[in-house]
Amino acid sequence: MSRISRLMPAFAVLILAGCGNGTVIGGGGTSTPAPVTVSVSFEYSIPTANAGPAALVTGTDGYIYFTEQTASKIGRLTTGGSFSELATTTAAAGPASIIVGPDNATWFAESAVGKIGKVTTTFTAAAMNEYTVPWAGSTPSFLSRGVPSGSMYFTDPGANAIGQVQTDGTFSGPFAIPTAAAGPHGIA
Asked: Strand, helix or coil at 153?
């Protein structure tokens, strides 16, 4: 018998006891979940005033990447609490959502200018690229990683559609939403 299989019964009892606030669930008994207390233990001030942080994601390097929608920047916060910021290549791009793509780069929607941008973990201006959505009226809003295809999909409220982008900046779409003026936003 392996060490893991010998520990499984004890582990199962601990899990059950933890689920019931110390009371083992079963036999018709009831339990009350423990209250959850949330507290902010530390705050960081973004270097750019009125940056308008809109979304964040943990990058493959363990740092926090975030969009600064009103400042038109992508920010990065290291585990040591240091900030870096990069202005989007196109001014007033209005970066909205941000995700880690299948290529491990950080991808973001530039709603105000109809583009999808990306920056690698080297986090330099040279590591930033933008790709123009090739259909009229585009306002990409939210991005999602397509599994298992490896593509990324985005909502496009301006075109009332869903779009698809590959890691090389190739687009497919627009895939029209059947309901007129639906204004799609979130996507998963």
From this structure: strand
Which pair of structure tokens corresponds to residue 147? 């599994």
What average pLDDT does the chain have? 85
Interval 40-74: pLDDT, tens: 878 888 999 999 999 999 999 999 999 999 999 99
Which residues of the chain register pLDDT less than 50? Answer: 1-25
Give the active site residues.
185
Chain centroid offset of residue 117 CA: 14
**What are the E-state strand segments in 29-141?**
53-58, 64-68, 73-77, 83-87, 95-100, 106-110, 115-119, 128-132
**Cα–Cα distances in angstroms (integers) from residue 34 to residues 31, 40, 68, in the given order:** 9, 19, 37
Looking at residue 12, what is its pLDDT? 35
Give all strands of the β-sheet with 171-176 in edge-to-edge order.
143-145, 152-156, 161-165, 171-176
Alpha carbon of residue 31 to chain centroid: 35
- Placement of tokens 């627009």 in the chain: 174
pLDDT of res. 31: 66
Secondary structure element (H or E) that encloses residue 172, with its range = strand 171-176
DSSP calls for 3-20:
HHHHHHHHHHHHHHHHHT
CA–CA gap between residue 112 and residue 115 (Å, rounded): 8
Nearest to 150 by CA among 94, 184, 100: 100
